[in-house]
Write a structure and sequence with these properties.
alpha/beta; Double Stranded RNA Binding Domain; pyruvate-formate lyase- activating enzyme; four-stranded mixed sheet; 17 helices; about 40% helix; binds iron/sulfur cluster
Length: about 500
């Protein structure tokens, strides 16, 4: 896509590109003349100011058709020129894009911020749900259903966050291995036999890091609140490997005191009774078994290598073993999946009565195989995806589930959201904590990112990230003494100013 900025006032380019992706998901942005493809969309815009009025003119063009919209906004006290320019540009883009493409983005012109975070900030100012809803509708052009969803999520998130003490922390353990690669995956996860053979050595390294993390938490004067073993597919480990990992965790932490201990199993075909009995015995309270869809043809076409039957079996095992909270992930809008087919999956998963259900919207990243094979993937199935997401939200509500965390990803079909639902008393705390970034999270394993968080004397948040190497082979080659020193230095400096 080509962008021409003809105005006097500059607007952050990344923001402009994000607005473009509301109407043209998956587009790349041409910088040089020779990169421009014939018939690709073009945005011409200008932002100018006279006295207190910011004016924006937007022309969007595609395949010989153009639409122009002009928006004017007053620079009000406390808002400033930059934010006013962004709001005006978003408004003009929304109306020009709606006319050109024939689609009104459900989240209006809201980009670059999590909707629930925005709503939480407004609620924290003491505003009522009604006034937040009005602002989402008026300033950001969010559709009525999404504005209501956003406020529901913010209120449920707030209830979870209110109970979190500042002297607590969480631990994330990364298992970036999978039994096969899903066609839509862009995550760094090893799935060939040669790479899977690294697992025993990887677990040894993880165990040494878990021991160190326990010492680092003491150093930071933090008490462990939640553990999340994520992937990849953590249950790709054999029962013996899983036991080795979990026994290391229980030697280093009092898991009985945790508010939550999640093992994100993931793929149903990797779950068996022995592994889940071990998980339960070592204190796991929450497990994620993810069918994504219960349509076997779609599962096969996206390379999941498991069937709907595998999901039911895995679910029954988790129930019989007595894991307190079971989460199931679904994806709306998978290539080839129709609305009626997805609705059946929603109904079937609800009929199993898991405590948590997370509905993602299909989203393709650059490095996913499926995008490379099919660059037109975003343009199909939008209507079915919109209906699928709407259906899931209505059905969850009518079945007693509440939305408690939500995020959006770039390049999601129809710009739609990912929402997690829960029955009362089972919300996944870690998911909210990682989203809000108000809580320290130690992290071990390849690709893991630790987040140190504190609030200064003015209540202002300070956050520092510590990155582990992205690939397992790099992680295993890392100098462990150096890594330990790096963590200790960061903790001493960040928390205690040493
Ligand atoms: S299970 Fe998840 S991490 Fe593994 S390949 Fe599939 S999408 Fe990627």
């Amino acid at each position: 896509m080509k962008i021409n900025d003809n105005g006097k006032i500059r607007v952050n380019r990344y923001y402009v590109q994000s607005l473009c992706m509301l109407f043209f998901p998956g587009e790349k942005f041409s910088v040089k003349e020779e990169e421009i493809r014939e018939g690709e969309p073009t945005l011409d815009y200008s932002v100018t100011r006279e006295d207190d009025i910011v004016s924006v003119k937007v022309t969007l063009s595609l395949a010989g058709k153009s639409e122009t919209h002009i928006a004017e906004l007053e620079v009000k006290n406390g808002v400033g020129e930059e934010k006013t320019a962004k709001l005006a540009l978003g408004t003009a883009m929304y109306y020009a894009g709606e006319k050109l493409v024939g689609m009104a983005p459900a989240w209006g012109m809201l980009v670059g911020i999590r909707p629930a975070k925005l709503a939480l900030e407004m609620l924290a100012e003491g505003r009522t749900a009604l006034s937040v809803r009005r602002q989402l509708r008026r300033d950001y052009l969010v559709n009525p259903k999404k504005a209501t969803l956003c406020i529901d999520v913010a209120q449920n998130e707030r209830a979870i966050l209110e109970g979190i003490r500042e002297d607590t922390c969480s631990l994330y353990i990364s298992i970036p291995f999978c039994p096969s690669r899903c066609a839509y995956c862009s995550f760094v996860s090893y799935s060939t036999n040669r790479l899977l053979s690294m697992i025993p050595e990887y677990i040894d390294r993880l165990c040494r890091d878990i021991e160190r993390a326990a010492l680092q938490m003491k150093r930071a004067k933090k008490k462990l609140l939640t553990i999340y073993i994520g992937g990849g597919t953590p249950t790709v480990l054999t029962a013996a490997e899983l036991e080795k990992l979990l026994s290391c965790i229980s030697r280093n932490f009092n898991t009985k005191r945790l508010a939550e201990f999640t093992l994100e199993a993931g793929r149903p075909d990797t779950v068996d009774e022995e592994k889940l009995r071990i998980a339960k015995a070592y204190g796991v309270t929450r497990i994620s078994i993810n069918p994504q869809t219960l349509n076997n043809n779609i599962l096969e076409s996206i390379g999941r290598r498991h069937t709907a039957e595998d999901f039911y079996n895995a679910f029954d095992i988790a129930r019989n073993v007595g894991i307190k909270t079971i989460n199931c992930d679904l994806i709306a809008g998978l290539p080839g999946e129709s609305y009626p087919s997805f609705a059946k999956s929603v109904d079937a998963v609800i009929a199993c009565a898991p405590e948590n259900i997370t509905v993602h919207t299909f989203c393709v990243k650059k490095s996913a195989q499926i995008k490379l094979d099919d660059p037109g993937i975003f343009k199909r199935g939008v209507n079915d995806t919109v209906k699928s997401v709407d259906y899931s939200q209505l059905k969850m509500k009518n079945s007693g589930y509440k939305p408690y965390y939500m995020y959006r990803q770039k390049n999601a079909v129809g710009n739609l959201e990912n929402v997690s639902f829960t029955i009362d008393g089972h919300a996944g705390i870690y998911n909210v904590l990682i989203m809000e970034e108000n809580h320290t999270i130690f992290a071990v394993g390849a690709g893991a990112v630790a987040k140190l968080v504190r609030f200064d004397e003015n209540g202002e948040k300070k956050l520092e990230r510590i990155f582990e190497p992205k690939y397992p082979y790099e992680y295993m080659r890392e100098d462990e003494a150096e890594n330990e020193a790096r963590y200790n230095e960061a903790i001493d400096r960040f928390f205690f100013g040493k």
